[in-house]
Amino acid sequence: MKPQDDLLKKIIGHSKEYGFVYPSSDIYDGLSATYDYAPYGVELKNNLRAYWWAAMVKLNENIVGLDSAIFMHPTTWKASGHVDAFNDPLIDNKDSKKRYRADVLIEEHAEKYEVKIRKDIDKAVKRFGDDFDEIQFRATNPNVLRNQEKIDDINDRYKAAMDKDDLTAVKELIEDLGIADPETGSKNWTDVRQFNLMFKTELGSVAGESSIIYLRPETAQGIFVNFLNVQKSSRMKIPFGIAQTGKAFRNEIIARQFIFRMREFEQMEMQFFVKPGTELEWYEKWKEARIKWHKALGLGDENYRFHDHVKLAHYANAACDIEFDFPMGFKELEGIHSRTDFDLKAHEKHSGKKLQYFDPEDKESYVPYVVETSIGLDRLFLATLTAAYVEEELEDGSNRLVLKIPHALAPVKATVLPLIKRDGLPEKAHEIMDMLKFDFNCQYDEKDSIGKRYRRQDAIGTPYCITVDHETLEDNMVTIRERDTMTQERVAISDLTRIIGEKVSMNTLLRKLV
Name one GO biological process term (predicted). Predict the structure, then answer.
């Protein structure tokens, strides 16, 4: 078993056992690629969403929020190009009967060469230390240059094939690279064909073509069709943005790797409307802002990288991904795209309504260009668990499993623990709970030994454990234990709200962004 596969299996098992994520419809043996967020999972998910929303809307005077409907007029998706062009290249293996995305097979093959490059770089870092120059090394090292040439050749061939919509050339690339079924090793492939990802359903009581409607495959179009409504009612001037979070649905060819790729998922998107000609400048600004937002979480700067798109979408003139080092390797976490004026002009054409902005300074009307940032909340959740999951060997030789979730995002901020279940300690612990619960999500736990309770809270990522003992009844002091360092300190009950608040406030993250 590969180490990264092992880590993903551990995260999946831990998520179910400790109440973060359950397989959906579990009593019926589950439903492929659908999951339910459990008690601690929903808290973590809400905190991640709140961090994104505060950073986008609260900290930016020129960004406002929206919550558009999942169901939209079907012409919306004709205008956006989804009906005709929202496809993934599909390929089947004739022997295993497994179905794959052709582009993912090619990307994963190219990634093998990037892994080799990374290994050479890591060796050079150990050898040269502070004198190491990665840029020069990448430009001169023969092994790196050879592997980079292979990556570039793969990308160039794939881009050329997709630009021409030449699916035969895509299959030839897979065959020339010797790509095998990841599970069986078979290279007996079918032809590549396009597969539309939208879910269809029917609206109303009468079935037929006129009643066909789609589950939205992205949240962005709800923003575009409301562009003028928001601009006028909020009295916004360009440049300004509209932020939205919500469910989207895609009939993925193959949905696997836990919550990384699902058919029902949640997006957090912001569309930033700018004056034509300034979009690439704003594209660079938002790239910088978004990577700063991610790194403020403290999940490890080395776990992020930018990846420019090999093939641009039909609406874009620049696009990149922020990739995270998941248990499956570096994969897309967030996309940043310069979408030009494609969407607004398409909706103008299909609706017959003008979607233009009158610029009071230049005294002219124009269709704005758009820079988009789009992040998958479920993928952010998985990234957080990936970085937080730690198995530690302690000084006494024992082991503990701890989720080192950033304090501000932890599902439970503090747990109150009476040392024993008698002598008035539970009553005193409940008094402390009643004091803290107005400011923090807290837990009360009196079952098992204090050591086992500490381990249970470590496993769900609780930053602080507050122990009530017999001395507490005399001096109104408690022992507070910090999760990561396991240090313990005796503090006054009256200081608990201040001490915990300083450490778990969302502002500790947000202040890093300004």
Answer: glycyl-tRNA aminoacylation
For residue 62, the tally of other CB atoms under 10 A from its CB is 13
User: Among the three residues 346, 372, 393, which one is the final residue of a domain in this structure?
Assistant: 393
CA atoms within 13 A on the CB side of 370: 27
Among 342, 363, 393, identify where a domain stops: 393
Averaged pLDDT score across all residues of the chain: 92
Q: Report which residue type is found at 371.
A: V
pLDDT tier at 162, thresholds 50, 70, 90 = confident
State the Cα–Cα distance between residues 429 and 419, nearest whole angstrom: 9
Binding residues: 101, 218, 250-252, 260-269, 332-333, 372-379
Q: Which domain holds residue 404?
A: 395-513
pTM, full prediction: 0.84
Task: Give binding residues for ATP as ranges.
Answer: 250-252, 260-265, 332-333, 376-379
Indicate if 62 and 111 belong to the same structural domain: no
Same domain? For 102 and 59 the reply is: no
Known binding-site residues for substrate equal: 101, 218, 265-269, 372-376
Tell me the pLDDT band of 1, cut-offs 50, 70 and 90.
very low
Cis peptide bond N-terminal to 23, omega within 30: no
82 inside domain? no
| Single-letter amino acid, residue 142 | P
pLDDT digits (tens, 9 = 90+) for 183-213: 899 999 999 998 878 888 888 766 555 678 8
Whether 81 is covered by a domain: the verdict is no
- How many domains is the chain built from? 3
Q: How far apart are CA 260 and CA 270, in angstroms?
A: 21
In a domain, 348, yes or no: yes
Structure confidence by residue, pLDDT tens digits, 353-411: 999 999 998 899 999 999 999 999 999 999 999 999 999 988 888 899 999 999 999 99
Q: Are 331 and 304 in contact (CB under 8 A)?
A: no
**CATH code: domain of residue 25:** 3.30.930.10
